[in-house]
Amino acid sequence: MRRLCPTISELNAFHSAAKHQAFTMAARELCVTQSAISRHIAALEDYLGQKLFIRKATGLELTEAGATYLNATRPAMAALESATAQLMSYGGDGGSLNLSVPPTFAAQWLFPRLGHFKRTLPQVSLNFVRYQHAHDFATPHEFDAAIQYGYGNWPSANARYLIGKETSIVCSPQLRDALPLHTPQDLVRATLLQHIEVPLAWHDWMEANGLDTSASRFGPGFNLYSLIIRAALSGFGVGIVPTCLVEDELAAGTLIEPLAQRFESPLGYYLCAPTARTNLSVYRLVAGWLEHCCNHADGAAAPAATPCIFCSPQASAAG
């Protein structure tokens, strides 16, 4: 007798078709034919005795029953994926982790440290998937964990602060001398480079320094910190960025901090994952390595009183 449960193939087809609202895209995602998706959906609808989709010329639309079933089965599908990944990762003391990372953080901070990661955790494989800022971790995503910039309060996410609250005002040495720029009040003569997704950055800084905030939103906008950094390097304007993203530029002198003071922002970079994924051994290894790197930015070993696998003689010499 068949159990009161559809097949995994039917459920996969249903969830993919609901996500893309098209059989064609679902077939592409699952690497099957469109007719196979259609057959699975038809079989599922026949099994449930309910229509799940309304077929329209513009695509698919969930019926009320379909929307209800989708929401009810999402946790079960996520739990199944987590259990499978967990068992696979327990094949040893490592495994594979799909990680979503903001492009600038990846290029400026994480990638320069991947050599140390490989030497320290050779049993772990990191897969960098397409970055898309997640707002609700109850919804299935293609990643196991994500590094995200924000306040750390995403629904259904276990968020661990890593780094990034320390913020720097940066510009090129040439721009500093040309303005000139030596005090906070001198910023009225500067072009303020704006991050369009962090619109209150300059406002918060000016308010903390007792300045008029009326001009805090004026200036060219960018959607990536990497673009703000490049614009500041070229002398186009003054940027306000997490200090961890410009460590190399500050050390080389290609960017400077003209005001010689830093600001503690309420935002930072967090390692986020659905709670079920945080039990994965591979997640715990990656989280531990990230936190170690953030807490020991100068490469110094942790105190002997707090043993750490990342501060072994081999890891310290390699790092």
Structural overview:
There is one protein chain. This protein has 319 residues and is an alpha/beta fold. Helix content is 40%, strand content 18%. The chain has helices at residues 8-20, 23-30, 34-48, 64-89, 103-110, 114-120, 173-178, 201-208, 225-233, 247-252, 281-295, 313-318, and strands at residues 53-56, 59-62, 95-100, 124-129, 145-150, 157-163, 166-170, 194-195, 221-222, 239-242, 262-264, 268-274. The N and C termini lie far apart (59 Å).
Globally, the shape reads: elongated
Alpha carbon gyration radius: 24 Å
Runs in which pLDDT lies below 50 for 5 or more consecutive residues are 298-308, 311-319
Strand order of the largest sheet: 4-3-5-12-6
* Sheet of most strands: 5 strands, mixed
Task: Please estimate the helix content.
Answer: 25-40%
Secondary structure tally, helices: 12
Set out the fold topology.
Layout: H1 8-20, H2 23-30, H3 34-48, E1 53-56, E2 59-62, H4 64-89, E3 95-100, H5 103-110, H6 114-120, E4 124-129, E5 145-150, E6 157-163, E7 166-170, H7 173-178, E8 194-195, H8 201-208, E9 221-222, H9 225-233, E10 239-242, H10 247-252, E11 262-264, E12 268-274, H11 281-295, H12 313-318
Parallel strand pairs: 3-4, 3-5, 8-9
Antiparallel strand pairs: 1-2, 5-12, 6-12, 7-10, 7-11
What tags apply to this protein structure?
single chain; 319 residues; alpha/beta; five-stranded mixed sheet; three-stranded antiparallel sheet; 12 helices; 12 strands; elongated; disordered C terminus
